[in-house]
Amino acid sequence: MSDRRKAHAHAIAEALLDLDPRAAAVEALLARCETRRLSPGEMLCREGEPGDVLYILLSGAVSVTAGDGPAAAEPVGRVEAPEVLGALALLDHTRRTATCTAVGPVELAVLDTETFAGLLRESSEEGSALRWLVLASLSRQLARTNARLAALSADR
Amino acid sequence: MERDPVEAARAYLEGLARLHTGDAEPDAVDWLLRRSPPIRLAAGEEAIRQGEPAEDALLVVDGRLVVLVRPESAGATPEASARIVGEVGPWDVIGEAALFATGARRSATVRALRPSTLLPLRRADLLEGTRNPVVAAIEFHLVHALAWRIRATNRSLVEARAAGGQP
Q1: Which of residues 67-106 of A touch B (CB under 8 A)?
Q2: Is residue B166 part of a domain?
Q3: Which of A23, A43, A155, B75 has an alpha carbon within 20 to 30 A of B32's alpha carbon?
Q4: Has residue B27 been placed in a domain?
Q5: Which residue is closest to A126 within chain B, CA to CA?
Q6: The complex's ipTM?
């Protein structure tokens, strides 16, 4: 178990905190999370539900769908491990804007609202690891949103 | 009599730490100010310039600055072609992309509209201050600043789509 955690921590530190691999800090963070496994096709979160937990995708992939009715069957994206999911909804106390479903077997680290809020203010290795993972995730999200806005303006 | 930039930055950091981590030990504040002394700009001076290498993020301690973007195709054309995209003031953060990507370049020019104090933040210093509550408070502030920026950009996106009738 702890060997596995170490391996996940290395993968996360390398892929998401690439400037400065800090596997030990990520490992300490993972130790504070619950681990969850999903079978292929199992739903991780549903659009419209309160966004009350943070997911760190450790292995596998999830498909992302949005909207009602038959259109919802059309995936709008796919997220591969390692990745952080749900940070914005947790910070904003908003609802999930998409439904996530396991594509194959999926392994996740889960942080509940209270642990997330506490760690986010904590001056510790794991607090720092969480803040930098969330910052990196938000920074990528902002870059995507900015690119969409720029493409829209360029079309005019 | 103008305020000393170090004292302005100290008061700012103490406020930030009290707000977010409830902890404003003078030693923790001093550690950061020694590594990262604040910058004082006169009106008209540039904090960052579009296209230059991005090595740090900057927290606005006091003052007011304007954010300018010139079209990429304009290359080295005069500043006259630059478009004002907004203004920033106390508690805002600029240039934060530098913290997440190596070799990034500034995507905008930011110029002081009046005397302004800025606190530079380098990734290496923040990572070295893992156990410093003031560093934790700054990172916490950055998280919320980025979340706020995403919300604002999402709103612009919705408005742009509504205005353009695009899907």
Answers
A1: 87-88, 91-92
A2: no
A3: A23
A4: yes
A5: B130
A6: 0.88
